[in-house]
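forwarding from the other thread:

> can someone predict this with zinc ion?

sure thing
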Amino acid sequence: MSSEILEDIKKTIIKKLPKEAHIAKVEFEGPEVVIYTKNPQIITENGDMVRNLAKDLRKRIIIRSDKSVLDGPEETIEKIHGIVPEGAEITDIYFDTVTREVVITAKKPGLVIGKYGSTSRSIVKNTGWAPKILRTPPLSSEIISKVRLTLKNHTKERKKMLQDLGRQIHEGSKYSNDWARVTSMGGFKEVGRSSMLLQTPNSRVLMDCGVNVAASDNKNAFPYLNAPEFSIEDLDAVIISHAHLDHCGFVPYLYHYGYEGPIYCTTPTRDLMTLLQLDHLDIAHREGNPLPFNRKHVSQAIKNVICLDYGEVTDISPDIKLTLHNAGHILGSAMSHMHIGDGAHNLVYTGDFKYERSRLLEPATTRFPRSETVIMESTYGGREDIQPSRNSAEKEMMKTIYKTLKKGGKVLVPVFAVGRAQELMIVLEEYMRHGMIDEVPIYIDGMIWEATAIHTARPEYLSKDLRDQIFHMGRNPFISDMFSKVQSHDQRKDIVESKEPSIILSTSGMLTGGNSVEYFKWLCEDYKNTLIFVGYQSEGSLGSRVQKGWKEIPLEDEGRNKVYNIEMEIKTINGFSGHSNRRQLMDYVKRLNPKPEKVITCHGDPYKTVDLASSIHRSYKLETKTPLNLETVRIQ
Ligand SMILES: [Zn+2]
């Protein structure tokens, strides 16, 4: 059936495009229709014609050069250096043989593009390769290099995956779309291991696949993939809302057990997810509690990612179109809008979201073309979850730091590597630059540094203010020399043993492993030091015990148990959270446009999930549901 559809599409394309297009072949590749041309010039010209064609066909159209008109890599590099002015300062050129793009990274990308795109057009015309132009990031990222290498080493497999997928997506629906249901697989009436399965008569889509890093045993750590509705072989697609492990930490497991299909997410989510999954494997290995998958499966996941930008409408199965929208939670975090069965039903899954502008990101989107059902998080959905404004949180933070530094103490902030850490870096840089806290070293421990490098490589996902600051005022807070990178045990030891006051940002955020626990052990018995919690502390984590004020805590120290007497000051500062507080959650539902019919709450303690749902029901007269894990809700 799919070949008939392809033949029809081909006929339409040949009819609509002019003869000069010299079409060599037309193929499905994942969600896209790819046209190969022997006249590369049409790639950059005739933009309107292609847009109209995409509209007519209701498909995403990509035009690429036919192999016969592509220059060899060496020749192409030489030509590019001839065409692009030297002032562009090209730092890297590489070839994506699947997309037939030449990726040019330069310090001044504007000069590679040229006036009205003239330079980049000239590259296509002369080499056949379509240029993709990137700005050289100020910090280099090992993870982005690794991701790129993985993609490069597996072009054939990736191409095959995309072609198989293309056939499957465009096959057409077998059954009429008269129902849709969502099964809670994890993260309902709890925080951690978020996962849910959307089923229609024609599709099975998994939304998120996380782990609970604070769980005491494997039974509570992973989603219920043994639910009778779920089978890995039947899965059509996986969508990942954002890179936190409680939303993506179990994805490699799917590849270990036979999943071969795609993962849809934004580019920053792919990169940050890889970083966090690899780190999770390392920590689990070190702690002698290995995970049921390994690094190979992380690479397999990378290969199968299809990156989507916000707002891009994409067919992910015969009857579901997916569009990602900004969620304001961490870099690349997304709300998923699913248009099911030609508009029979529209589902929005918010993932974690922040409905407030932060220093790092724009607030979450409230506008969708249509939405009947919304599945939303309720982490801070309890009526008492009123958080101070970001502004007063910042002031309190600075007061605490100021006092600690004056005592000659050290400040330890255990923090998630992704999101809060960068938010704090921006705040600290500004306050220190303005002399509001003493100038002391700010130590950024290993993984946070890497996550920051990924932020600098994807500036288009940052807030407008921050982008303006970086590009128009030439001040990038992330590369300030106030920050020092820490990578080794010896370096850590030197920092804690030094008499000098300092500020330390280190993972993990809940003291559940990682170097923050090491720093904690070193610093906790000295009253001069302060520990500041800025994020959620899961029940059962060391962070939660410390936060509750335990004074004696037994911890392992070089293989022996030791009781630590907590003397350091313990402070919790709310308001830096990447989650919406109660008021913002309620406001969000109020502002949703159009108004949904049904709201399902997830991702929160049982009481908060229910409290938020009942308030939404009472205030806005909407049907609400608060399923437990393993329950199924019919949405259509
Ligand atoms: Zn999150």
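The radius of gyration is 25 Å. thats all i got for now
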